């Protein structure tokens, strides 16, 4: 009886061990990951997404590789410019792994290698630039990305972007730059104030000019209206006088006609004509 119980327990233990071994031999690789597998210490292959089986006690996973794009923020590094100014610059590197095999076997501690390579490359680039030129980050970023991408290619790493996060100059240089910026702001403010005053004076002068033009035009129109009124007055007076003369002459002619019809002689008619002419 005890032998049967011991055999059953042994069977259970063996079954558990077999299940454990089988579970370790079955590997499911998720998305954006890869497994570098070795057989008896030698590289066997790279397992991508899906389910895979390993040979017990012979195959092993040498490295689990993340294929997503990664970001590493490296601490500030002291660099010296061409004009002997020491500053602190920290960088941010964006990269992803293109070849898991090269990443696993290409270099020991790849992230540390990228950090050291970033520091040395940054020193070389900044060493060829003067202080003012280091403020153009786009140029430095492009040079850093190109250099790091070429250097990390044998490690199965693709560097996509490099950004200078902070550029910290010495305190004296920073104070001088702040004073320069303050002076520049004050200069711009003075220019803007002068331009504003100039525009204001121009607007005032244009207002005076327009006012004078309007006054002159008003006086001109008033004079024209006065002249036209005087002309109209004289025309009316002349027409009145002409009308009066015509009325007098008509009345005289009518009187002469009446006298003539009454039988007056020529002497009387000539006298009346002369009186009418003198009266006109």
What would you note in describing this structure?
- The chain is an alpha+beta fold and 280 residues long.
- It contains six helices and nine strands.
- The chain has helices at 2-25, 100-105, 110-127, 137-152, 171-262, 266-279, and strands at 26-29, 33-39, 42-47, 50-53, 59-66, 70-73, 77-80, 86-97, 157-168.
- It is elongated, with a radius of gyration of 57 Å.
SSE blueprint and pairings:
Elements: H1 2-25, E1 26-29, E2 33-39, E3 42-47, E4 50-53, E5 59-66, E6 70-73, E7 77-80, E8 86-97, H2 100-105, H3 110-127, H4 137-152, E9 157-168, H5 171-262, H6 266-279
Antiparallel strand pairs: 1-4, 2-3, 2-5, 6-8, 7-8, 8-9
What distinguishing features does this structure have?
280 residues, alpha+beta, 3-stranded antiparallel beta sheet, 22% strand
Summarize the structure.
The protein has helices spanning 2-25, 100-105, 110-127, 137-152, 171-262, 266-279, and strands at residues 26-29, 33-39, 42-47, 50-53, 59-66, 70-73, 77-80, 86-97, 157-168. The chain has 280 residues and is an alpha+beta fold.
């Amino acid at each position: 009886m005890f032998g049967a119980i011991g055999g059953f327990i042994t069977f259970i233990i063996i079954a558990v061990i077999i299940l454990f071994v089988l579970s370790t031999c079955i590997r499911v690789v998720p998305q954006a990951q890869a497994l570098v597998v070795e057989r008896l210490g030698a590289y066997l292959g790279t397992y991508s997404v899906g389910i895979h089986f390993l040979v017990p006690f012979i195959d092993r996973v040498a490295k689990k590789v993340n294929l997503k794009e990664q970001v590493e923020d490296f601490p500030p590094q002291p660099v010296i410019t061409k004009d002997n100014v020491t500053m602190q610059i920290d960088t941010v590197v964006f990269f992803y792994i293109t070849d898991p095999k090269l990443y696993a076997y290409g270099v020991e501690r790849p992230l540390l290698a990228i950090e050291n390579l970033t520091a040395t490359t940054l020193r070389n680039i900044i060493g060829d630039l003067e202080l003012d030129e280091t403020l153009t980050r786009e140029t430095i970023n492009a040079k850093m990305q190109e250099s790091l991408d070429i250097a990390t290619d044998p490690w199965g790493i693709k560097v996509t972007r490099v950004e200078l996060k902070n550029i910290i100059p010495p305190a004296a240089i920073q104070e001088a730059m702040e004073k320069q910026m303050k002076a520049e702001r004050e200069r711009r403010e003075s220019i803007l104030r002068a331009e504003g005053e100039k525009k204001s004076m121009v607007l005032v002068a244009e207002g005076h000019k327009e006012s004078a033009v309007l006054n002159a035009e008003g006086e001109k129109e008033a004079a024209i209206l006065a002249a036209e009124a005087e002309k109209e007055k004289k025309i009316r007076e002349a027409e009145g006088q002409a009308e009066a003369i015509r009325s007098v002459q008509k009345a005289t002619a009518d009187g002469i006609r009446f006298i003539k019809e009454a039988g007056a002689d020529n002497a009387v008619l000539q006298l009346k004509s002369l009186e009418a002419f003198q009266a006109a």
